[in-house]
Design a protein that fits this description.
Low-confidence stretches: none
Shape: elongated
Distance between the termini: 71 Å
Strand order of the largest sheet: 4-9-8-6
Number of helices: 3
Helix content: 25-40%
Strand content: 25-35%
């Protein structure tokens, strides 16, 4: 019997998968515990709709990430900070400050945890990379200047 799983079932499959099981297993174990429902036309249609919605979401997120990567690639973001003698900063420039500056200058909303860069503790220009989506990243520059 073919069933659509409504929850993860150990050693059988994940939620939303179409699996084939014996009739007795489905009637006596899966159906009474609401772990699965019979794979009729309605259930198959719901499964197809869920799959197409997930594909659409992935496609739009990928397109948005590519657009943001094209906008960020090679750009320079200027961050100001206070420093002491010989250009050494009081503290350091963090990914949070860079993300806020990206939002201000380029109107790109990014998560600070997706920005990878070296520790910035002095004036100068540094390279940073942002991972926007799986397999999509952009490299940009951070210019640290005095106030």
């Amino acid at each position: 019997m073919k069933v659509v799983l409504t929850q993860d079932v150990k050693s059988l499959g994940k939620k939303g998968e179409l699996v084939s099981v014996s009739d007795g297993y489905a009637r006596n174990f899966l159906f009474p515990r609401n772990l699965a429902k019979e794979a009729n036309a309605q259930a198959m249609n719901e499964l197809k709709n869920r799959a197409s919605a997930a594909k659409y979401k992935i496609d739009t997120e990928t397109a948005n990430a590519r657009q943001a990567a094209a906008l960020l690639e090679g750009k320079t973001v200027r961050v100001t900070a206070k420093a002491g003698g010989q250009g050494r900063l009081f503290g350091s420039v963090t990914a949070k400050e860079v993300a806020e500056q990206l939002n201000r200058e380029l109107d790109v909303e990014v998560d600070r945890r997706k920005i990878s860069m070296e520790d910035i503790k002095a004036y100068g220009t540094y390279t940073a990379e942002i991972k926007l989506y799986q397999g999509i990243s952009a490299t940009f520059y951070v210019l640290v200047a005095g106030e």
